[in-house]
Every structure is written in C-alpha cells, then in structure tokens.
Amino acid sequence: MREVAILGVGSTPFGKVEGRSVVDLAVSACREALAESRVPREAIQALYLGNFVGERLANQGALAGVVANRLGITGVPATKVEGACASGGIAFRHGFLGVALGLYDFVLVAGTEKMTASPTPEVTAALATAGDDETEMRTGLTFPGAFAIVMREHMARYGTTREQIALVSVKNHRLGAANPKAQFRKPVTLEDVLASRLIADPLRLFDCPPISDGAAAVVLCAADRARALHPAPVRVLGCGHATGPATLWESADITGFPATARAAREAYTMAGASPGDIDVAEVHDCFTMAEIVATEDLGFFAKGKGGPAVEEGATSLDGKVAVNPSGGLIAKGHPVGATGCAQIYELVRQLRGEAANQVRDVELALAHNLGGSGVVSTVTILGRL
Amino acid sequence: MLAGRRCAECGRVAIDRGKACPFCGGEGGTEVALSGRGALVSWTVIRVAPARYADEAPYTVGLVELEEGPRLTARIAGDPEHLAAGDSVTLGSIDAARGPIFRSTADA
Questions:
Q1: Disulfide: which of A51, A255, A264, A347 matches A379 by Cβ 3.0-4.6 Å?
Q2: What Å distances lie between residue A135 and A183, A224, A248, B22, B98, CA to CA?
Q3: What is the Cα–Cα distance from A136 to A373, expressed in whole angstroms?
Q4: Residue A52 near residue A85, CB atoms below 8 Å
Q5: Per-residue pLDDT tens digits for A203-250
Q6: How far is B25 from chain A (nearest CA, A)?
Q7: What amino acid positions of A are annotated as catalytic residues?
Q8: What are phi and psi of A208, to 5 degrees?
Q9: What is the pTM of this model?
Q10: Interchain CB distance below 8 Å, B71 and A198
Q11: Who's near A255: CB < 8 A, 6+ residues apart?
Q12: Is the pLDDT reported for residue A160 higher than 60?
C-alpha cells in the first residue's frame, strides 16, 4: 500500500443553513477543500460522497454524480456511500483505499446532509432506518431509545453515574461555544443537562445532538506528491472499517460496540500505534453515553472507566486524551452523512495547529465514526507527513 | 406464542423467524419451545417517537432475555414507573406491526 496524505479540507458551518440544498452544501465544502489543497479540480480522479438520508429528507438520489457535475468534474467515477451515520467515514475509507492501492493519485471525499427542513418525527423515522426494522425498530425503538437502553445498562453494570454522563454534554457544549463551525455556541451547566426534557428515559435533550445541515470535504493524495504541493500535508497513518450487530438483542453485552473495537484494531495496527499514543480524538458522541462507550471501545480507558475519566478531566483539552475539542456531534452538530468527514476536517486543523480549541503538541489524532447502534464503524489515525 | 430454534451450526438459540440463524447464517436447526417468560435487561420510555407511532408516545421498549436464552427487543406494556432491571416479564400478545408485547409480572 502507498502512503496517503490529506492536502486540504473544507466545511460549511453546521446548523440550520437556510437556502442551501444538500447539493449546495456538498459543493461548498468541496470547493473550499479544493482551494485549500491547491489542487486544480481537473486533477481529481474520483469522488466518494457520504450521505444517509438525502433520498428521504431531501428527495435527492444519484447525489455523487449530481455533485460531481456541479463541481465541474463530470466524467470521474463518483460514488455515494451510505452506512447510516458512518457514511462520511466510510466514504473517506474508500477514498483512502483508492489512493493507497494506487488506483488514483488525487481523490475528493465529502459528506453532506440536509435535515432541518423536515419535521422532527420525519427525521426520527429517517434516522431509525439505520436499525433492523424487522426485528427491532418496528417496536417503535428510536436511536435515542437504543442509547438510553445502553445507558441504563452501563450505569447498572459499572456504576457510571448520571452526572458523569451529563458532564460529556457540559464539556462538549463548552468546547462548541468556541468553534465557529458549531451549531450550539453556548455553554450549558450540569443542572441544565439534568433538567432538560426527557427524550428517551433516562436520556434527555442535552444528551442528544441537534438536527443539522452541513457538509465537509477532504482532498486525498499520494503522499509522495503531497510535499511538493502543500506546505503542511497531513498523513493518514491508519484507517479501519468494520461491522457489528445491527440490533441490541444480538449482543450479549450492549455496553460496547464490537465494530468500533475491530475498526480501531485495524487502524492501530496499520499506524503502528496504541491507544495511549493518541493526543486528540474526535469520537462519535451521537449521545453523551456514546462518547463514554467510544472512549472505552477505542482503548483510551478500561471498560467501565470511561465515566470516571470524564469526571476527572481525562478527556478535557489538557487531559490524557482530548476528546471532541470541536464540541463533537452534541454541540458542533450532526448532519449525519457529513459527520465522518467533519471529524477529519477538525483533526487536520488540530495537526496544523490552527484548531478552534487547539490541543497542545498534537502528534497523533484519531477519528471515530459509528453507524446505527454499532452496525458499522470507521477509525482513522492521522499524523504529520 | 414465540417459536425458537437452536442453530445446527453454532448451537445458539434464537427467535425462529423462518430465516437463517441471526448469529452465524446457519440454515438448519431444531425447534425449541419458548415459554414467553424472561427477565428485563434494560429499557427506555420513548417520548419522541418516529412518525408511524407518533400518537402512541410515551411507550416503553425493553431488551428482554428469555428463560431459554434468546434476547429480543420488544414493547413493554404497563406503567414504566416501577420497572427495574431483572424484573420478570411475560409475553402478553404479538402485534402484527409492533411484534411481541411483554408485561412485567409485577404488573399483572
């Protein structure tokens, strides 16, 4: 496999973005990434585009081809990738493979979603398609509900406290407040989280991400060409992708997601790194509980120790591993198909020393994207070239 | 009643849905009678429901482990106020759309 570099990244603001379609958002992020990469669009040989609910909420299929045309790169193979909320991460993985395996020298990867124009029950139903309808979602379970069931079990089994879980929201809102791309720019208190309305007991509103519009994009290139093109390229050291159970009932232990652990193992092995080497991570905090589970599945903390780690500040900006300095999905926002690429956007900024909440002395950065209640996950490890 | 099947390949018991084993993809197996009795592992009360059940909220969905081993996700009827992990639950009915519906035996 060849070494792969990131030349440029782009991102729209996340939130309620009026007057821009799912296509407009993708095009905007791609143009920004191309400009930053200093690569002419004619050099792009393939496009991989992550999108989850565009057909259902934005009435738009064939999205990759439509975006390619609007970018003026008609003719290149353009592929839409769908893996629920991990669509962006999987798109990135495919772009990475295309360059690593020598098929392409320059690949554009993006993720995009338009959600805020739809009523909440429609959005909830669209997101619920990431579950197994025949055996689980037909009960009326939702994703907040699935993570609420995980939360109650994690609390019962490990003594994780309601306050520890709520502190994830407090941390991420505080960080999001300083991120100009974030949807929520106001801090919240522990009391605010615990007093917010119940969505799926015991999970409350401030345990959840907002409904968001947004897109993010990444230009990948063969590493041996990167230095000549850009002063600060980032290297993709490892990229893992794995699947796991699509339902809660298939797992003997619902307090962890095997897909995350498998993807992480692949990424760590490829990068020759271990969890203790990671300085900063953007993890899939689709709910507060999910951030704690992710930090355990990724090996940052032992099973059951993720809750105390938040309380002790081990996941803060100056902690053992800074987790979600962007504000994460909870505060930055979660335009579902864009999230995996947005995590890469944030970590490239971290590695260049230009992030909104800059972590000191970043050598290795990790992105973790999760689909459904663990049906698929990607883990990517980045460093400097 | 719920039908179960022990997979000929991996030996695990699962709800028999007339399909391959959900754990290993094995096709063969033997029928296992399921009592419909089990224990509540964990649960939630859905307050923001998907469009198709929007007018039913709030309702309870739980993860149930049957006495014979298989787990399933199902509606739990009754007041969720006093539910606790490990509570005995029993199959009440099977709804064509929503699937099996359990209730806490303490609630009966």
A1: A264
A2: 34, 49, 10, 10, 9
A3: 11
A4: yes
A5: 999 999 999 999 999 999 999 999 899 888 999 999 999 999 999 999
A6: 13
A7: 85, 334
A8: -110, 155
A9: 0.98
A10: no
A11: A150, A153, A154, A157, A158, A293, A303, A304
A12: yes
Provide the 3-class DSSP secondary structure of residue A6: strand
Measured in angstroms, the CA of A251 and the nearest CA of chain B are apart by 9
Q: Which of A122, A139, A250, A293 to mutate to test the interface with B (most CBs of B within 10 A)?
A: A139
Domain B37-107 has CATH 2.40.50: yes
Strand-pairing partners, residue A111, are A50, A216
Tokens of A195: 């007093």
Q: How far, rounded to the nearest angstrom, does the alpha carbon of residue A346 sit from its chain's CA centroid?
A: 10
H-only helix segments in chain A: 22-37, 54-57, 63-71, 87-100, 120-128, 143-158, 162-176, 190-195, 223-229, 258-271, 288-297, 306-311, 328-332, 339-352
Domain boundary assignment for chain B: 3-33, 37-107
Residue A214: name the closest of A348, A58, A364, A321 by CA. Answer: A58
Per CB-CB distance under 8 Å, the chain A contacts of B70 are 249
Laid out side by side, the sheet with B13-15 consists of B13-15, B3-7, B29-33
Helix (H) or strand (E) holding A8: strand A4-11
CA atoms of B1 and A305, how far apart (whole Å): 41
